[in-house]
Every structure is written in C-alpha cells, then in structure tokens.
Amino acid sequence: MASSTARQLPPLPVALIAEGRASIVLRWVLSRALTFAILVYAHESDVAGDVRYYATSLHELFHGLGLHDTLQEYPSPVLLLLVPQFALGFGNQVAFVVLFALSMLLVDAVFTGLLWRGDGRRRGDATNLWLWFVPAIGPLAYFRFDLVPAALAGGAVLVAIRRPALAGALTAIGASLKLWPAVMLPTFLIRRGDRRAVLTGFIATAGGLLALSLLIVGYGRTISPLHWQSARGLQIEAVPATPLMVARIFDHSTWTVALSRYKAFEIFGAGVHAAAQVSSGLTVLGGLVLIALWWRGARHPDPSAETLGWLFLATALIVTVTNKTLSPQYLLWLGGPTAALAVRAPGKPELRRFARLLLIAALATQLEYPIGYNAIVKAQAVMPLWMTVLAVRNGLLVYLTWVAVSRVWRQTSPASAHPAS
Fold first, then answer.
1. Rounded Cα gap, residues 311 and 300, in angstroms
2. Fewer CB within 10 A of the terminal residue: the chain, N end or C end?
3. In a domain, 421, yes or no
4. Has this prediction a pTM greater than 0.90?
5. Is the bond preceding 370 in cis, omega lying within 30 degrees of 0?
6. Number of domains making up the chain
7. Which domain holds residue 111?
8. pLDDT of 417
9. pLDDT beyond 90 at 27
C-alpha cells in the first residue's frame, strides 16, 4: 500500500529542482554580467596586464625562448592551463585574453554548480557568498589563473570527509599551479582514518606531475619558482609593508615604489630590510601556530568537516598575512574555501560574520587595485584615500586570521570532544 501511494505522489521535488536551477543560473549570469560591466565602465582594463604578459611569454616560447626560460616564476604545469587558449587563438594576443577570461568563467560556473549542489540545490549560504564574492573582487577574478587553485581548494574542502583521496589529489594539483596549496596538506591529515587515503591521493598526483615536469623542463626549471619567490622584496600590498607605505604618505623622498625585476611593485628605502626581517619572523611564528593547530586537530577524536574548513582558512590566512608578497588575486584563495566551508557549516552565525567581512575585504581589494593602484604607486594627491583603503583591507585580513585561528582552537579543545558539550 505504501509503495502504491509513493508511486502516485506528484513529481514536486523535480519541479523544485528545476526552478532552483533556473534561478541560480539567472543569478549567476546577472552577477557575472555585473562583473564584466565593472570592467568596461570602471575602466579596469589594467587587470588584463598579466594575461597579456602570459601571451607575450608564450609567443616567445614558440619563437625560440624555450621552456626553461618561460614564466620561470610559476610552476611548469601552469603551461598546461595557458597553451590550449594560446593555440586556440592562433597566437593572437587579443584572442588569448578573451579565451583566457572565458576559461576562467567556465571554472567559476563549475564551482558555482558544486556549491549549489552542496547547498541542497538552493541558494544557500555557500552559493550566496560566491555569487557576491566574484563581483566584489571584480574582473580581476577572470584575469588571473588563481581562480583555478582557489576552486580546487574549495573542492578539496567539500570532499575532504567523504572522499579524502580526492582531497589529496586536488591539493596536489593546486600546489602544481601555485605553491601555497601544498601547505594545506596537513589540514587533511588530522583525521586519523583518512591519512592513508589523503597521502595516497596527494603523493600519486604530485609524483606524477613532478615526474612529468622533470622529464619535460628539467630540474632547474622545476624548482625555479622557489628561487623566484624567496628572492622577491617587500611588495607594497603586503601586511608587513603597511606601516612603511602609510609613512610614505608624509615623506615621498625616504621611500620609493618601483617595479622590481620580479615583476611586482616593491617598496624601497629606510626600514624596508627590517620590515622584510619582521615578515620572516612572522612567517616562522605563523608556522608554529599552524603546527600547534594541526597537533590539536590530530589529537581530537573526530575532527568535523567544519573544523577542517576553519583550519584550511586559518592556514591560508596565516600564509597570506605573514608573507612579504601579497597580490590582489590572493583574496581568491580565501573565497573558494570559505564558500566550501559554508556548505559544511550552513547557517552558522560566526561563519556568516566572517563571510561578510571577507566580502568587504574583497571589495576593498578591488578599490585598491586597480582603481587606486596608480595613485598609490606614483604617490599622487589622492594617495591617502587609497592607502586608507589598503590599510583597512590588511587590517581586516589580520582580524580574519585571528577569527579563523580562534575557531580552530575552540573546536579542537578537549571539551569539544565531550558528548555533553
């Protein structure tokens, strides 16, 4: 009788799913149209500068430069992301820029779909955050390939509990494109029962990519991004550079800003070396904090998916705020995992507050770059306004770091493992 009744029920869930899919597609299209409208009407064409640089480098690659000297600052698997668009555009720079943006738009669409499914095929916290996050950070999202490791990081958080081997594999792929995701591996190792699967996925994927890189480009080119990053100076947007950049408002002669040989605007002058040393000290301190958090997580009887998400964010934030380099696209590293965490911790007030502040930080990043960037670099009359925006953004990142670390600390306390609590 029960089965007969079940067969007679109207297909209401299917209708609701269809309506939800149409609704999310419409909202995604409108929000992304807004993002590209910002590109046109806010004159943010400067954000495509890096993509044009990719095109120039690839043109030189196919005209005799060689793999060893092409895009040395990036891991060699990045070429797998760039060469297809370059070939499809027949080497034309304009075509490459368009195809690159479209490929990032596709990554964004896939990630949005995964969040929507995680939200139960409705516009929940995760989908809402991501829909707003991309317009907040602006067109930059589609003119840097950081969107790919950000989506991979978010995907790793989403699958960490049910498919730990896949989480390890996604982390390895992210690390092959940008080095920072490698630091996230210990986060997925805190769950005792998942360690073998995570390590298997990570080592198999990373080993395969490493072997391919060594075979094609050799040892020197494979490790060149490590040398490149370690040799860089103090970037003007880095948190440790903020006091000197604020002081530069009042004294343009003591501190100068210039494009370094590492293709980044860095600050030069009194106290810069000391600030770089402070950054190194903060990096060591941040590493000790992470070791403590990982240790507490590993000793916890059953860390939840929410705890993994917060630990992932704490790691990404500590790496971001202590580093001597901080580019605008690094905010993407935070958006993807935060949206994924919202799937695992829906409706949590502390996460909603965190997400709102992250959106403000993303918007401040867009205001600082590219809108106010020229004024900051050239110390124009309106520099104080944009430096205030940059300082507020960096202050927000420091505060968000504290919030994430505090959440992990509480959720890995012995009391949190007690059934009564």
1. 13
2. N
3. no
4. yes
5. yes
6. 1
7. 2-415
8. 60
9. yes
